Amino acid sequence: MLRSLSIDAEKCTGCLQCEMACSYENEGVFNPAKSRIKVFTFHDEGRFVPYTCTQCDEAWCLHACPVEAIVMNKATGAMEVADSVCVGCKVCTIACPFGTVNYNQDTGKVIKCDLCGGDPKCAEACPTDAIVYVDADATGLDKMRAWAAKTDNAASARG
Amino acid sequence: MDAGRPGDPGNQAEILVAGMKHVIVGAGPAGVVAAETLRKLDPEAEIAMIGDEPEPPYSRMAIPYLLSDHIDEAGTYLRKQPGHFVHHSIEVVADTVASVDTRDKQLWLTGGGAVSYDRLLVATGSVPILPPVSGIDHEKVTNCWTLEDARKISRGCAPGASVVLIGAGFIGCIILEALVSAGVKLTVIEMGNRMVPRMLDETCGALLERWCGEKGVNVMTNAQVEAIEDAGGPVKVRISGGREVNAELVISAAGVRANAKFLEGSGVELSDGAVVVDRHMCSSVPGIYAAGDVACGRDFSTGEYSVQAIQPTAVEHGRVAAHNMANHGSVTHPGSVLMNILDTIGLISSSYGQWQGVEGGDTATLVDEEAFRYIQLQFDGDRLVGANTLGLTQHVGVIRGLVQGRFRLGRWKDRLMKNPLLVMEAYLAVSQG
Predict the structure, then answer these.
(1) Which residues in chain A have Cβ-Cβ distances shorter than 8 Å to B311?
(2) Domains by residue range for chain A, with CATH
(3) What residues of A are in contact with residue B281 (Cβ under 8 Å)?
(4) What is d(CA B314, CA B52) in angstroms, rounded to the nearest whole number?
(5) Do B316 and A156 touch (CB under 8 A)?
(6) Residue B11 has pLDDT above 50, yes or no
């Protein structure tokens, strides 16, 4: 069964361990700026909201790619960027309505969450279970996708 | 949640007439996506795709990265798997369509043959326009449009060579990096009052011009090429205001037009040379559809019909057209969001939706000229309807999310008016709150 990241912002303390773990796993450095998961801070409300790709069904990034550099990993359900194919055109970064595909100027490629190949380090690092990796059916994935669908006015264009 | 959504793959029961003959003219992203979608919808269909270039279907968008040696020619191919089209029983025909007989449902090829169809998709994209000046047909002048053009540019870009680029639009700007890194002496001539006037506002265009100047590129705005003269070796490029530059290579990136001349007289309605389509991507002639840069399709923001000429729109068109070719009326095109992202020698700009603003709307801007950073948001009431950015690469897609979701921003509008960089926070608050 496919698993997915389940994020409960209520449990997040803003410690940024997830960003550190992500950056280290994927970029080899402890640099939150290079993390594929991002914790947004709402000072006025005193809230922290971890946020990353939901591996949405619409896969806007995958469909927008002109050179087939983004493909679905059938084992994990993640949309993965093939660095050797990505030309760095960035069309996926504007096509993703969730803002979760970003351009890395150092490498000239785009980066996005790939669920660490099925062992997401953000979930492992999270000390409060604000981020957990669980069966897709048991998560708020449906809710996230329903919310995704609100943005999905072009859904009927997807085949 | 996907159940029942029109356009789902696998709804083969929807197909009323299986095994039709679908002919697609054009082998770019719109044509390829349409062919693949048709194959999914109807395994029995006969599908032919006619392209007029000798290479396998490729992406023009990848050409700048070929010029800068990031990829080889195979890296531009739309599908990487060898035998992909054969495997999906999509016949790829190398020829050009001369004319269409809409009554007998038949195409005439310039190669002499005829092809009959049940459903026809026009996905012929656009072709470059050469500025109407004397000497534009000189052998040292090239477009930047096809792989063949790219090869010619690569050959002409020896270090130290003088190169003139006509047009600082999207294509002109996106190949600047390759030209600069090839070490050529570069002059850019732009007719408009700023760089990329069709995508960037005045502040953004002016910042980009200063950036290019600092990178050693000579950019002339409000300037026009008046003539290109043979001078034995390099050509002499005469520019308005009495200026002239000698050039070993002249690259023309002065704009494009829809590639639909072969439809003139066919009865298919054209507007400014592009195929007028309805929300099923169907032209004025039943059975004939159009998609991509050749199609005058619906714009999400304005509800009006225009040629957007961008990759995501071409792909959306291709899908919608394919569904309706297989089963007319099955999928309605909601309209595509106009959006662009451009990398000009490492400075990244983007535009979304109604970036020029709407009547009675509000504008939020934030600029750091020294750092070449800029963001401008356009609101209609408390909804975001467009944006321009410069120097931003993180979470820019969320601007599309806000525009396309038509989210009411409520108190987040005031926050964005004060700090437009909070788009991601605003999105999280209004979409998940």
Answers:
(1) 64, 66, 91
(2) 3-149 (3.30.70.20)
(3) none
(4) 18
(5) no
(6) no
* pLDDT, tens digit, 9 for 90 and up, residues B83-99: 999 999 999 999 999 99
Q: Which CATH number fits domain B15-127+256-326: 3.40.50.970, 3.50.50.60, 3.40.309.10, 3.10.20.70?
A: 3.50.50.60
Six-digit token pair at B120? 């026809």
The pLDDT assigned to B8 comes to: 41
User: What are the chain B neighbours of A57 within 8 Å (beta carbons)?
Assistant: 2
Beta carbons of B126 and B291 less than 8 angstroms apart? no
Cβ B173 vs Cβ B251: under 8 Å: no
Amino acid present at B10: G
Question: Of B327, B336, B332, B315, which Cα lies nearest the Cα of B280?
Answer: B332
Domain with CATH 3.50.50.60 in chain B: 15-127+256-326, 153-252
Q: What is the rounded CA–CA span in Å between residue A119 and residue A132?
A: 11
With cut-offs at 50, 70 and 90, classify the pLDDT of residue A129. Answer: very high
Residue of A nearest to B75 (CA): A85
Give the up-direction half-sphere exposure of residue B254: CA atoms within 13 A in the CB hemisphere: 19
Cβ-contact B196, B176 below 8 angstroms: no
Residue B2: band (very low, low, confident or very high) from pLDDT cuts 50, 70, 90: very low
Q: What is the pLDDT of residue B9?
A: 42
Give the pLDDT confidence of B278-291 residue by residue, as tens digits.
Answer: 999 999 999 999 99
Nearest-Cα residue of chain A relative to residue B41: A159
CATH fold of B153-252: FAD/NAD(P)-binding domain (3.50.50)
Average pLDDT over residues A7-27: 95
Tokens coding B369 = 């000229």
Chain centroid to Cα B4, Å, comes to 31
- Tell me, what's the ipTM? 0.92
The answer to whether A86 touches A110, Cβ cutoff 8 Å, is yes
pLDDT at A139: 54
Is B378 near chain A, with CB under 8 Å? Answer: no
Check A153 against B316: CB less than 8 A apart. no
Task: With beta carbons under 8 A apart, name residues in chain A contacting B312.
Answer: 60, 63-64, 91, 94-95
